[in-house]
Amino acid sequence: MRAPLAAALLLSAIAGPTLAQTPPATIGQPYVPAPWWMRDPVIASIGYVRVELQANRAGFSATFQVVDRSVAEASRKAADQVRALSQTLAAYGVEKVRVETSLSTQPLYDQYRDENGVLRDNTRADRIERYQAQATVSLSVRDVALLERIYATVVASQPNSISQVYFNLEPDNDAKTNLAGAAMRDARTRAEAAARNAGATLGSVRVIDPTGRACQTDVLAGWPSYGSGASQATTVEAYEVMGARAMAMPAPPPPPPPPGQAPSEAQIEAARLALQPPLQTLTDQACVVYGLN
Length: 293
Hints:
The protein has 293 residues and is an alpha+beta fold. It is built from 6 helices and 11 strands.
């Protein structure tokens, strides 16, 4: 008796994973066995929420150019132009603004006109007239409350060009967790309203899927069919996601520029512009399946 029993248990152990991996149905089959949580009446609800939060990152770059007959002098002068600016910005601290500086040089050749009158460079080593050095300061502003002053500081340094300011939103883990919680609450609110309007009441929770995909499975279509889910998101307030941080905080007093170095405080104030970080939208979904009473 023991040998047949052991063989049966062995066959069960081998067949178990195989059966678990079997697809729910053949493609095209009219009916698919419903999952266990649909044996009794249920309601599947997708919580879909959105929130508008102010962008909390900004970035731009500035370029300084110097032309000189000596490549060493051109590089030195370009570096001198950005050195004072880099020191001024470094005074804010890397947690407020991150600064990356790069330096490049290129030769400027003697030019001539060809037989068609087109101006061309005489690209020969003995025909180099000058060297152009370009120093670029790239900034990532992590405290947007300081953006206007930092931008004015760069403008007052008189670079040859300044790029457009770009903004983006990087929510922290608390904001992501709070938004996910709001999606769960929204799922229950939608389910309660649907059940009440249908003359039923919610029962116990059968399935919780933070990804929202369980509510998008059509078990009658012959194969899982994933759609777009809820079409209209519920708007939640910023304080529900960010808490007290949603309130605008005044910018801390800026550090003074290093002594004896440009730009001066008056130059910085004269170059200030209004730079309001835009609002950006975050969304989240969650699926909760309830029983019905």
